[in-house]
């Protein structure tokens, strides 16, 4: 990967009005931490694969494990993480548990991310 040089100002001059406006509208630290934690979940290859599969529709753990050539235990672990941050939801049908994307926002986030990397 090429080294990217970051440019900086040639002299120090703080634009107080801009700084003040940004500080006044900055979300609370707790909200920013929650947002950072939310996006961390997308940083795992297996979890992204699971989310992309669930874009097609709901699936049970057995089918996810078969599709990804992984153990059900490994899939369950990742689904637990995804469920904790409300990216997936589950429903039980007899002895089978089906997982799906929690809402349309998740589909939008994944699709916009894909658009961005393909540009």
Keywords, separated by commas or semicolons:
119 residues, mainly alpha, three-stranded antiparallel β-sheet, 3 strands, 58% helix
Describe how the helices and strands are arranged:
Elements: H1 16-25, H2 29-41, H3 45-54, E1 59-60, H4 61-68, H5 72-84, E2 88-93, E3 96-101, H6 104-118
Antiparallel strand pairs: 1-3, 2-3
Radius of gyration: 20 Å
- Helix/strand/pairing category: mainly alpha
Mean pLDDT: 93
Task: Return residue spans where pLDDT drops below 50 for at least 5 consecutive residues.
Answer: none
Approximate helicity band: 55-70%
Describe the protein.
A 3-stranded antiparallel sheet has the order 1-3-2. The longest helix has 15 residues, at about 105-119. About 10% of the residues are buried. About 60% of the residues lie in helices and about 10% in strands. It is mainly α and about 120 residues long. The protein has 6 helices and 3 strands, in the order αααβααββα. It is elongated and about 65 Å long. The model has no long low-confidence stretch (mean pLDDT about 95).
